[in-house]
Amino acid sequence: MRPSATPDVFVTGIGAVSCLGATADAFWTGLKAAASRPTPVPGLTEHVPDVLAYQVPDDGTGTASAPSGALGRAARFALTAAREAIADAGLGSHEVSEAAVVIGTAVGESGGREEGPGGEGAGDGDGTPAAAGSWEPMFSVASAVGAELTAFGPNISVSNACAASGYALSVAVDLIRRGEADTVLLGGAEGISRVPLASFSRLGAADPETCRPFDAGRRGTVFGEGAAVLVLQSARAAAGRPVYGRVLGTAWSCDAHHPTAPDPGGEQLVRVARAALAEAGRGPGDIGCVVPHGTGTRQNDVVEYQVLRELLADRAAHTPLFSLKAFIGHTAGAAAAFAAVSAALMVRHREIPANIALAQQDPECPVWLPQDGPTALRQPNVLVNAYAFGGSNFTMVFGGGAR
User: Fold this and answer.
1) What is the C-alpha to C-alpha distance for residues 263 and 261, in angstroms, rounded to an integer?
2) Distance between CA atoms of 122 and 162, rounded to whole angstroms?
3) Distance, C-alpha 352 to centroid of its chain
4) Distance (Å, rounded) from C-alpha 359 to C-alpha 316?
5) What is the full DSSP assignment across 330-373?
6) Could you give the CA distance from residue 11 to residue 340 in angstroms, rounded to a whole number?
7) Nearest-CA neighbor of 276 among 182, 201, 343?
8) Other CB atoms closer than 10 Å to residue 176's CB: what's the count?
9) Segments in 246-297 forming alpha helices (H)
10) Helix, strand counts (H, E) of the chain
11) Which of 242, 263, 287 is nearest to 399 (CA)?
12) 314-370 per-position pLDDT tens digit
């Protein structure tokens, strides 16, 4: 059982902008279709030919939501997803005005600064020119969304690499559990930025074909862009609303092992997952699916398998994994938010979409990745992992709406 003193935090609305489309419905449909491929990045591929990315189609950039150039690319994605989540939850204007906004992002609006302030070609990373002499702060996504929505609660941007929206989720849950907010717009957002992509290529960590976690032929990760936003609410605010489920437990840590490499022993990762399970009042047998961090880099995939084997024991081989990054790429600071939206949809539909088929599974990662069709979610609890440079680790347990 969950600790009786832990207040419930419900998810009442979701929104998503991804390479699969500009809505959460398009996201779910795309996951079920299991068909997406990365594409060349304009202005980069001619210099770094092995770099691809899972990019948002032009009709999903959110330009209809704000004047061209008024918001950076990541903020436009986040605003579009936030408006969808607000409508999905049926929030009134007074609820939005009192809401907090907490958004995780790894690189923020850095795409708009790659050409220099107001210089020729300066813009937000998608060819939109910036105003002359402008150079907006990089980590302004939450405040930009809050300003557009006139949300006067705390506006907090969280940036700690690829665990950013996981940490942001923990912050949002704490705001509700401490009574500092009844409603939080929680999300993650990234726009394609050329410098990080080129840097990963120089590190030898970019797969030149596709993102294929746990595949024996994987050669690194492939980044993606977009935004995922969830409406988190207290029991009081969620009363009378349909819910996707509840955030049952969260935990995070920093193992401080290495600036970029995971701790090969994985002790902190196991401890964080056990802490999240303990807060959720759940055990290994209660987990119906795991959405792994699963980047496609060799070290990450192998270490994460070892962690799951330690955590789930003899159930590791029988607990299905959903390899999200194979569909939308590594969305960096938005990865945990996209995983949380995926978990909410799985719990609502009681179904795990089929994974994208592997050419050959890595024998060092014998996880169960169902690939022949949808799998029933037999236990309505989903474990979500997000790990990041700097040793930042996050795990969440998401569960059904009923107590």
Assistant:
1) 7
2) 26
3) 17
4) 22
5) B-GGGHHHHHHHHHHHHHHHTEEPPPPPPSSB-TT---B---SS
6) 10
7) 343
8) 25
9) 267-280
10) 11, 14
11) 287
12) 999 999 999 999 999 999 999 999 999 999 999 999 999 999 999 999 999 999 999
User: Do β-strands 226-234 and 223-224 pair in parallel, antiparallel, or remain unpaired?
Assistant: unpaired
Looking at residue 383, the DSSP 8-state letter turns out to be E
Give the H or E element holding residue 184: strand 183-190
Backbone angles phi, psi at 382, to 5 degrees: -120, 130
Alpha-carbon distances, residue 264 vs 159, 257, 258, 270, 396 (angstroms) = 24, 9, 10, 12, 21
Rounded distance, CA 13 to CA 88, Å? 5
Provide the pLDDT for residue 240. 94
Q: Is the dihedral of CA 218, 221, 223, 228 positive or negative?
A: positive
Cα 210 to Cα 199, 207, 244, 271, 361, distances in angstroms:
17, 6, 31, 32, 15
Work out the average pLDDT over 34-63. Answer: 78
Q: Where are the alpha helices (DSSP H) in 141-297?
A: 141-149, 164-177, 194-202, 235-238, 267-280
Is the separation of the CB atoms in 391 and 379 below 8 Å? no
Q: What angle do CA 268, 142, 233 make, to 5 degrees?
A: 75
Contacts of 67 (CB under 8 A, 6+ apart): none
CB 371 within 8 A of CB 355: yes
Strands 155-158 and 223-224: unpaired
H or E stretch covering 327:
helix 325-328
| Residues linked to residue 10 through DSSP beta bridges, in sequence order | 233, 246
- Cα dist. 75→102, 152, 377 in Å? 12, 17, 33
- What SS3 state is found at 111? helix
The arrangement of strands across the sheet holding 52-54 comes to: 39-40, 52-54, 223-224
Q: Are 140 and 75 contacting, i.e. CB atoms less than 8 angstroms apart?
A: yes
Q: How many Cα atoms sit within 13 Å of 359 on the Cβ side?
A: 8
Instruction: Look at residue 265 in the predicted model and tell me its pLDDT.
Output: 76
Tokens of 291: 């959405």
